[in-house]
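By convention, each integer encodes one residue's backbone shape. The lines below illustrate.
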Amino acid sequence: MKKRTGDDWFPFWIDKWLLGSTRDELTIEQCAIWVDFLALSYKDEGYIRANEGIPYPIKRLSGLLNRPVKLIQQTIDRCLEPEINKLRLESDGTLYVISHPEYELSKRHKRRLSEDDVRQKGHDVQKTDAKRRVEESRVEKSRVEKTSCSEKHSEPLIEFDFKNRKWLSIKIEDKSGWLAAYPACDINLELHKMREWLLANPEKKKKNYRRFIVNWLIRTQDKGGSQKFKRASGGRPMTRKEERKELIRAWVKKPIKEDK
């Protein structure tokens, strides 16, 4: 067999197919077989054959194209007629598509596709390498950002030690700042809650634990504070009686929705 092109597509000219003479020369069923012949011939530089010098048995073509033997034979006979002249019967019994050069790729496209087989074999390797490079770039970028952030603040970042189950690098100044910003929160109590939450969800490790702590305290403050601190009690937790009064006061202030 001649050297195969290795291409997996060929140019199919729209105007020639829609406005050309093929539709008048062949039946609808034969047109479909003709397109199959074009695709098959392009795998072997215009030839329709099992191997060099060996033609396809008609039954094998029928099985390959999943079409009736009679229809395939009629299409071949019709395309071999001198007035149609779409196929040429070689001396060895193989078939050649006469218009094959018209469907050939340009030299520029052939040069681009000349190493297609090599690229196809290395596709998975290249894809893996690309993913690896992207991941390495992401990790390096993250490392540089962390280093830059550490150098900028010139102080250790707040971290959580999962092994020893404790916070690291939280200073008294940090707690004082949080208490001033979120007066309804019991800072130590909330830090204990955060610790237990992190231990229960080890897969949800955080890149920025300071942001995690602040977001937690914001939500707690918006919900009324730790254990519903009483605003005028100086941080003392409310008793059950005080909680009931607060609930009644909130219920009385709640607007009544009118029935529509």
